[in-house]
Amino acid sequence: MSASSSTYLPIGTIPLNKLVPWEGNVRKTGANQGIEELTASIAAHGVLQSLVVKKSARGKYAIVAGQRRFLALSALAKNGTIENDTPVPCHILAASTDAKEISLTENTVRAPMHPADQFEAFRDLIDAGSAPADIAARFGITEAAVKQRLRLARVSPTVFTAYREGKLNLVQVQAFAVSDDHGAQERVFADLSDWNDDADTIRSALTEGEITASDKRVRFVTLEAYEAAGGALRRDLFAEDDDGIFVLDNPLLGRLVMEKLQGEAETVKAEGWQWVEAISEFDYEARGEFRVRRPEPLPLSEAAMAERKQLADEYQSLFDNLQENDEETSARLDEIEARVAELEDTGCAYTPDVIAIAGAVVTIGHDGEAEIVRGLVRPEDEPEREPSVKSEARPEFSAALVESLTEHKSAAISANLAKRPDIALAAVVHALASSIFHRSGGATSLQLSGRVTRFREESKGAEELERVRDAWLDRIPGDELGLWDWCLAQDQETLLELLAYCASVTVNAVRTKQDRSEPPRIAHANALAHALGLDMAAWFTPTADNFFSRVGRTTVITALTEAKGMPTKRSWLKLKKSEFAAFAEREIAGTSWLPQPLRS
User: Fold this and answer.
1) 284: closest CA among 47, 469, 527, 516?
2) Highest mean pLDDT among 103-117, 126-140, 388-402
3) What's residue 3's pLDDT?
4) Mind listing the pLDDT tens digit for each residue in 218-243?
5) Is 486 within 8 Å of 476 (Cβ atoms)?
6) Is there a contact between 116 and 163 (Cβ–Cβ < 8 Å)?
7) Which residue blocks in 25-114 are alpha helix, DSSP H?
8) Residue 558: helix, strand or coil by DSSP?
9) How far apart are CA 404 and CA 406, in angstroms?
10) What percent helix, strand, coil does the chain show, rounded to 5?
């Protein structure tokens, strides 16, 4: 007797309500996964594979194989799609058959369909005239999922074959599907290597130069306005954000951008500027072609000046007669100070003289909103300045204090540069190029050497540099030839990190007593600090010892008013210098205020 005849009784149908689950089924996990899709498929196509059952008690049949099909049929009966007694095709096991072995065989001896075969099958259904919505309903998946599989089936045959052969994974094929251009897909595929074959690299190569919906121009115009104007889009079906939506009509987008900017510019023209321009991209270089004038505080009205004078007289009278523990008078003095500050806070505006020579640019900000840059003066419109008369006034800071402060700044620049190999590389190349092309000096076989800057002041920057130096001394050999062999053996990242440290300790941004005017190296140091995004407030905190006791009372008062935004208090004038310096240290702590030589 053949295996099949000894195992199965003849095939037949059994009413659904006579079928029951079998506790011995070997599939214990994942039986409910994908039930929605299977339910839709059975509703559309019926049961394509018979269940395997064995007789049970009370005229029932236990399901040995086909548990998921039974769950799908039960769901259809529950929602009224089929009757409870719908006949179900079944193989009935002979009583002598090992049901557990049949269950195990059913769940293991089968090969799943390769996803590529599924994608092609969906493509063939579409090509035969089926609509994505109909296919989605018949297979219990979303219409978007059908379109995704169709897009994958339509990638270049070269890419699709590589996927079948396991040379590409599904995520990579999804990245290729961002473009419909088979030629471009094949060129990118040919250029792939083991170190640049990730999905982001593929997607970037296929969309280079294209405009996504996250572009600030699209956000400015809005995607809705672009589509309303007839603009075409392409969507990456595998992306969830605006980076997966591509604008295809660049000229239309450019026209919409300029129309909206010019509309904004008409409003700005009413402010009376000499000129107003609408520019979609107004970058740092373009801004550098103009001198920038700032708005100035508005003058006080006559009524405000009269009130301020009356309050000043009252304040002076109360202050002169202030007694210890006189809380009522102290409270009134605080009220007067607050009101004076309120009167003096008049806001700012451009003067008529500035508006007469300056203009404004209406552009797009980084956030995709209109940005208006006012107070721009073209070089030819800049009025000639009167020759300046050299001031003989005493400088605000002593030369010794400036040198002390700029040591802190120099060390901070160095400590930042030690962590930025990219900026350090540019700085070293700049130094070499300056010595070669501008003959500013230089001396090894490369005639290049580094001179370490030594700091006398204790500072956070100097401490950080010493820590980094100790770390490198633990890594590099102690002799020069050994260092050469070590350098040859290192990867580029390590060499750049060491280059950054070596460059950092040569920085000299200290302004000494001998520097009668600002030397070029100070200007370069400031440019370097700007490139590093240096925040000196993280490296220097003014204290009584390092600053306030070394400057005049007027400078301390200015520091307090700038840092705290408060008007000058007459009580400050009664403090001794040491008390005032300690007071300023306490008040300015945490405000990020910096002396002028340390500001950006």
Assistant:
1) 527
2) 126-140
3) 43
4) 999 999 999 999 998 888 888 777 77
5) yes
6) yes
7) 35-45, 67-78, 99-108
8) helix
9) 6
10) 55, 10, 35
Confidence at residue 1, expressed as pLDDT on a 0 to 100 scale: 31
* SS3 (DSSP) at 9: strand
Q: Are residues 504 and 561 in the same domain?
A: no
Answer yes or no: do 8 and 60 share one domain: yes
User: What domain range includes position 405?
Assistant: 399-520
What is each CA distance from 494 to 425, 489, 499, 504, 532, in whole angstroms? Answer: 13, 10, 9, 15, 20
Q: β-pairing, 359-364 with 275-278?
A: parallel
Asked if residue 49 belongs to a domain, the reply is yes
Do both 555 and 510 map to the same domain? no
Separation of alpha carbons 504 and 526, rounded Å: 14
Enter the tokens of residue 38. Answer: 């299977």
When pLDDT is cut at 50, 70 and 90, the band that residue 595 belongs to is very high
The pLDDT, as a whole number, for residue 321 is 78
pLDDT given at position 28: 63
CA distance 106 to 128: 33
Instruction: Indicate whether 197 belongs to any domain.
Output: no
C-alpha torsion sign, points 527, 530, 534, 540: positive
Specify the 3-state DSSP secondary structure of 101: helix
Distance CA 8, CA 57 (A): 19
**Residue 37 maps to which CATH number?**
3.90.1530.10
Kind plus residue range of the DSSP H or E element containing 174? helix 170-176
Locus of tokens 């049901």: 99
pLDDT (mean) for 81-96? 86
- 345-395 pLDDT, tens per residue? 777 889 899 999 999 999 998 889 999 999 999 888 888 765 544 445 556
pTM as predicted: 0.45
Q: Looking at the structure, do residues 493 and 558 belong to the same domain, yes or no? A: no
Q: Tokens at residue 191, please?
A: 């250029």
- 331 and 435, same domain (yes or no): no
CA distances to 398, 555, 586 from 580, in Å: 19, 11, 10
pLDDT of 442 > 50? The answer is no
Number of domains the chain is built from: 4
Do the beta carbons of residue 450 and residue 506 sit within 8 Å? yes
Residue 33 within any structural domain of the chain: yes
Q: Which two tokens stand for residue 299?
A: 């003058």
d(CA 345, CA 339): 10
DSSP category for residue 365 = -
The percentage of residues in the chain with a pLDDT greater than 70, rounded to a whole number, is 87
CA distances from 268 to 196, 246, 368 (A): 49, 32, 18
User: Which positions ≥6 away from 399 have C-beta within 8 Å?
Assistant: 512, 513
Residue 573's identity, in one-letter code, is L
**Closest C-alpha to 118, from 181, 34, 207, 239:** 34
The token duo for 70 is: 């039974």
How far is the C-alpha of 256 from the C-alpha of 220, rounded, in Å?
9
Give the DSSP H/E element, type plus range, for residue 247: strand 245-247
Mean pLDDT over the full length of the chain: 82
In a domain, 536, yes or no: no
